[in-house]
Design goal:
Elements lengths: L1 E2 L2 H7 L1 H13 L8 E2 L10 H5 L3 E5 L4 H8 L14 E6 L5 E4 L42 H15 L28 E9 L4 E8 L5 E4 L6 H15 L5 E7 L13 E5 L4 H25 L4 H7 L7 E7 L1 H5 L5 H11 L5 E7 L14 E4 L26 E4 L5 E3 L9 H18 L21 H5 L10 E7 L4 E6 L5 E4 L6 H14 L4 E5 L4 H8 L3 E4 L4 H6 L4 E4 L9 H8 L5 E6 L10 H8 L3 E5 L26 E5 L5 E4 L5
């Protein structure tokens, strides 16, 4: 073992120098030998080193003390500077001996130089000597080069094995995912350097063993880690065995939607779908707990080891930029905590990536496995259990520290070219190959789907998503659901209430309900205090539209199945009209109005609709409290302001968020 600059090593790695001294003490009997070199001897070459090094060489030094430390004599301080390489050698306790060291880095002189004849020359008989050749050029051949080449050739000729390397090569700066072995139901995070064990392994986290935190500042490799984890999981398990859901706060994971395993990808501007996804996963967690109890199993992992037929797919939720997302969703943080607490046993694993804010959140305690990328403030690494003094000076993008032991990890790329287009192309190719090679699972094992609610949808488009019930005189309220489908309400169940603030889409909803009923063959009368474009489109769909003050005449003229009163709060109270529309055998009733018009001071038809609602369309409620005006209970923070037509639809008692169609 050869160690240069011993003083520097001792200053930075004291424990390493102590280990070298131990090698010197016991190494010779084991065939291990040690060579130490230093420019500074004072305080470095101590009694331990002198006692365990039998051969000491001291070249010319400036200080007598340095010579004394090495050879127990001052003589090396008096060596002439005219003879580079001149040294004093001490063996054991013997006296110093003069030594001239050899130089092997001088330019190689090819051939032999035999003196044939000596000729005496006077200095003025010859020209000035040529300048010496520059040393250190790329093409310069030295004695050392020739010696190394000769030894290598001799070793190869004799078939000698290369010497054992106690240190493996350093981690690569670029690593392709294909270089990592794939294990089913394990998250591949990268290549893990374990120098204390003289190993480099694939760092993977078995699903069900706990959640994963990936923490780092901007452009440190968080998205790369999540992308590699998703593709690595997908290549080792089928879409009937593993489901992926993605919360993409950075916008860098959208391509994962192409994988056959992916169910939901929530973008950075969709807090409503984020809450829906977390709520659905929480419901799945509760359902699986009941199933595990029924099957007598402690975990989904146990089911997979016992009987695949009873084992539900593992679910992995990949989250990028959590702290930026949670600012816009009040309930998401609480739901995420519940999911983290109960997820591993039921086969739900969260891989959560974010900046330093994660380290100071309540979520960190639930994230068992922690990967630390570059941080703007290195002292924050202590929050994941790392020690600042052991941190490397620089962590390039894609290089991380595993909090369990402080070992370095190189994150995998989908292609060795790290550019965005190359990674996107590699992801698309991998997704296409997996889709071609995978069998589509049956509906019971297919990934969860959460369709995005459209901001606009026509009545024709909404009706095409599903058939209406065959009884109860159904009308279409809107579209909703994980897989977008129509929400129907039966007119026989009681009055339909459509409530919302100004500009929320009440008249459009009234026209849509009227047109939906007319399309099913019902005779519909729509009354409004003033005409609108929506009313005109309803008239074109077979609805009779009249001013509110002229409602009695068409009711007398012909039978009517449904009366729709738009802006019922503007309608003057008429006791005879209330009686006519609420007596047995009267037409079905639908009313629209401002939220306040259905409050405790409601009168006339507003009061009737409030006290006996059959179904409700609650448009753009500003908060959860106003929902009580129409008999609906919402959770705290459930209010929103748009887009027009966005509503809570209540057809079977429970409100669902949906979109009311229009008649474009």
């Amino acid at each position: 073992m050869v160690a240069d600059e011993l003083a520097e090593l001792k200053e930075q790695l004291r424990s390493l120098v102590d280990g070298l001294v131990n090698v010197a003490r016991v190494g010779r009997s084991l065939g291990v030998h040690l060579i130490l070199a230093t420019q500074k001897a004072a305080g470095v070459v101590d009694g331990q080193i002198r006692a365990n090094t039998d051969l000491r060489v001291c070249l010319r030094v400036k200080e007598i003390g340095d010579s004394q430390d090495v050879i127990d004599a001052p003589d090396a301080a008096h060596l002439p500077s005219a003879y580079p390489g001149r040294a004093l050698l001490v063996r054991g306790s013997g006296p110093p001996q003069l030594l001239q060291t050899a130089r092997v880095t001088a330019p190689r002189r090819p051939g032999s130089e035999t003196v044939r004849r000596a000729i005496a020359l006077r200095w003025f008989d010859v020209a000035p000597p040529p300048p010496p050749a520059e040393a250190g050029g790329d093409d310069l051949t030295t004695d050392l080069n020739v010696l190394v080449d000769a030894v290598r050739a001799a070793a190869e000729a004799d078939g000698l094995a290369p010497p054992y390397r106690p240190w493996l090569p350093p981690l690569p700066t670029a690593l392709a995912l294909d270089e990592l072995a794939a294990t089913r139901f394990a998250i591949p995070l990268g290549r893990w350097d374990r120098p204390q064990d003289q190993r480099q392994d694939v760092l993977e986290v078995p699903l069900g063993s706990g959640h994963v935190a990936i923490v780092g500042s901007g452009r440190s490799g968080r998205t790369t880690a999540l992308r590699g984890a998703a593709v690595g999981l997908a290549r080792a398990a089928g879409p009937g065995e593993l489901h992926l859901h993605v919360v993409d706060g950075s916008g860098g994971l959208a391509g994962l939607d192409a994988l056959p395993h992916t169910g939901v990808v929530v973008g950075p501007d969709d807090p409503e779908r984020l809450e829906r996804l977390l709520d659905r996963l929480t419901a799945i967690m509760r359902e699986r707990r009941r199933d595990l109890s029924r099957l007598g199993a402690a975990s989904v992992t146990e089911l997979w080891s016992r009987d695949v037929a009873d084992a539900p797919p593992h679910i992995v939720l990949l989250v990028d930029g959590w702290d930026g997302l949670v600012e816009h969703t009040e309930g998401a943080s609480r739901t995420m905590l519940d999911l983290l607490a109960g997820g591993p046993a039921v086969g739900i694993t969260v891989v959560l990536a974010g900046d330093e804010r994660i380290l100071k959140s309540r979520l960190l305690a639930r994230l068992t496995h922690r990967l630390c990328l570059r941080l703007d403030n290195p002292t924050d690494a202590t929050l994941v259990g790392l020690q600042v003094r052991n941190l490397p000076e620089d962590l390039p993008p894609g290089r991380a520290l595993w909090a369990a032991d402080g070992g370095q990890v190189q994150l995998p790329l989908l292609a060795t070219d790290p550019s965005g287009p190359a990674q996107a192309a590699a992801l698309a190719d991998t997704a296409a190959r997996l889709r071609a090679d995978s069998e589509e699972p049956d509906a019971a094992r297919a990934p969860l789907r959460l369709d995005r609610l459209p901001e606009q949808i026509t009545l024709a488009e909404a009706s095409a998503l599903g058939s209406p019930p065959t009884t109860g005189r159904p009308v279409l309220l809107g579209v909703s659901g994980d897989r977008l489908s129509p929400v129907w309400a039966g007119l026989d169940a009681g009055p339909l209430v459509i409530a919302g603030p100004a500009g929320s889409g009440r008249s459009t909803a009234a026209a849509t309900v009227a047109a939906s009923a007319a399309a099913s063959g019902l005779r519909v009368l729509l009354a409004a205090p003033r005409p609108s474009a929506a009313h005109g489109r309803a008239a074109g769909a077979g609805v009779t539209v009249v001013p509110s003050g002229e409602l009695a005449e068409p009711l007398d003229r012909a039978p009517v199945d449904l009366v729709v009163l738009d802006d019922v709060d503007r309608l003057a109270p008429h006791d005879d009209l209330v009686e006519r529309l609420t007596t047995p055998g009267a037409p079905a009733l639908a009313v629209t109005g401002l939220l306040d018009s259905f409050g405790f001071g409601a009168t006339g038809l507003s009061k009737v609709a409030r006290t006996r609602p059959g179904s409700v369309v609650l448009l753009c409620p500003p908060n959860h409290l106003v929902a009580a005006n129409v008999g609906v209970t919402l959770e705290r923070g459930a209010g929103f302001s748009g887009p027009p037509g966005r509503a809570y639809l209540v057809a079977e008692g429970k409100p669902v968020l949906g979109q009311v169609p229009d008649l474009r």
